Amino acid sequence: MRPPVLLLTTLLGILLALSGAPAGAEYGDVVLNKRAEKEGVRPVVFPHWFHRIRFRCKVCHNELEFKMRAGANDVLMADILDGKFCGMCHNGRIAWGPENCDLCHSGKPGLPTGILGGHGTSGPGRW
Amino acid sequence: MKTNPIILAGIIFGVLTGSAMTAEPSRGKAVYESNCIACHGTGVAGAPKVGDSGRWSVRIKSGMAALYASAIKGKSAMPPKGGNPALSDDDIRATVDYMVAQSGAGKPSPAASTAKPAAAKGAAPVEKAEISRPDPVGAAVTTAAPLVPPAMAASEVNRFNRLLMPVGRRHPPPAEDGIHDPSNDATHVLQPPLDAYTGFPPGPAGNGVDWVKTLEQGKIKPRYDRKDPNAAPVVMDLNIVREVKGSMPDVVYPHKQHTEWLDCSNCHPAIFIPQKGANQISMAQILLGQKCGVCHGKVAFPVSECRLCHSKKKPMGVAQTGKN
Fold this sequence. Notes:
The complex is a heterodimer of chains A (127) and B (324).
Chain A: H1 2-20, E1 29-32, E2 44-47, H2 48-54, H3 57-63, H4 77-81, H5 101-104, E3 114-115
Antiparallel strand pairs in A: 1-2, 1-3
Chain B: H1 4-16, H2 25-40, H3 53-61, H4 64-73, H5 89-102, H6 110-119, H7 124-131, H8 139-144, H9 148-152, H10 193-197, H11 211-216, E1 239-242, E2 250-254, H12 255-261, H13 264-267, H14 283-287, H15 306-309, E3 310-312
Antiparallel strand pairs in B: 1-2, 2-3
């Protein structure tokens, strides 16, 4: 009785592990999780592709003072509510407001801070 | 036969929780109709509608145990036990089973529900229940059948090879991209990348979009100023040629395409000193995310597209022919 059960369990485990593997973040997706999970919310996923359709790089990386290095920006919810960083646009006037928590805080728990989808693959760099 | 896995899941969880009670589908139906239908029948407040197999299947993926837990403890807009604390945990489980069965999103996934008990020590009775079942199309068979094919399907054999990712899986919608939480209702509201890219000139790498052409052709009109939609970028049309060692073509750096998107201060003087000959650049630095690699390889096209930068052919020495 034991071996088939063990085999079954192993297969189930493999299937679960596979289904949980990241299929592929979109190129340029940034995960912000320096504080989010410690504060009890999901990590933030910032999609570069979505924003560059609407704004040139310069708007966020100059006017909004986002440094061009993942993890270099200390973005606090308090700042956003004060109209800094994301809150410069996500204020209900230019874009929807910060009351829509789950639209940004939509990442899987446990994601590390950083830029994902590099080199069009789900792995680390191609090189 | 159809209800077999449901009943089985009920038995398993009954055993798990130390209760001998079996979840009854009829009880689930009654609880659903008296408590849950208000939201889950209509889909208000982001509740997954019963019958919406798409939204239920993503929830089932995370396992029936997780589904039971969110129903009992509550989740985002859903109050604990659907707002009726008089219901027992078993009632809730029976109701979840009923709703899952009604949503046609596959039966309560045996994969998710049996994994734990089989791994745990106290699961012996469950295993016996599974194995000793005489019915040939019973639990053990129905459990194993959907498991093996996905691991062996012909389209999956190269799945481990991320450089050969099939086209269909390159820009998955948020709920399937592996970084968004599919159990978050708002994840399903987010725009899938491919919806946005429709009509954009295709590119070889990155997002699969040639962003420079997309902008040139006016397919997108990204603002240059946060507030003023009509502000025009200060475009500087100046090509910088950088001679490189070896046989690689020289690099032509076009200010034009860069200033369409960026401000001078994004690159100067922190990343590049604005002075001829003052910047040492190597591919190694770029691959480590410095110099051009601050953007290229992260949001701008990656370094795999050698010839987009190394684009100026240089006069090559004629190979020795042995005649002179």
